[in-house]
């Protein structure tokens, strides 16, 4: 009864952000503590009048932030108390100036992603290497087959962030990417955006395997330099 009373149907505008806010408010208002179970997917769908894919996307977002965990066959559990004020880092983007937003985002990402690559090279474990290589192989397979590999590219980078063993890298960078990708799946409507950076993902992986932070930084910069060049070229 408490769940239905505190979670009310939402209008159709910007569903994911509204679900994030509504679920954050519910967790705070109901005083859920670490270790307690969240409502089931079915209960959330019914209470908020949204589809399963939206609920799962929000729960994945919460998992990336390290505040919930999903236990197979059991449900989703709170790892730490949250509120709407702390569950995400709001980013303000002027969506009318795509070129400027892309370049501004890149300026911030360059520093964080280079550092993430260097830390991953220093701290990666054998298990991390296996996961990164698995994601890289899949990225390369899809890229060769389709000529583009956006989701697989992201999965590769998320695996690199995990290898830092510092959850802030993943939280910050995934929030930046997620906010950006809400507006543009393919910048400038170009499937080939940043395609020339493809080979440098393998060399970044090699640098992480070799535990060479400077090489990891250099290869990350090569990827981001291609992104910057494409932004400037495609926005002419």
Task: Write a structural description.
The protein has 236 residues and is mainly alpha-helical. Helices cover 64% and strands 3% of the residues.
Strand order of the largest sheet: 1-2
Number of strands: 2
Quaternary structure state of the chains depicted: single chain
- What is the radius of gyration? 19 Å
- How much beta, percentage-wise? under 5%
Which SSEs are present, and which pair or pack?
Elements: H1 2-6, H2 15-29, H3 41-48, H4 52-64, E1 68-71, E2 75-78, H5 98-123, H6 126-146, H7 150-162, H8 167-181, H9 198-209, H10 213-234
Antiparallel strand pairs: 1-2
Keywords:
236 residues; two-stranded antiparallel sheet; 2 strands
Question: Concise description?
Answer:
With 236 residues, the protein is mainly alpha-helical. It has ten helices and two strands.
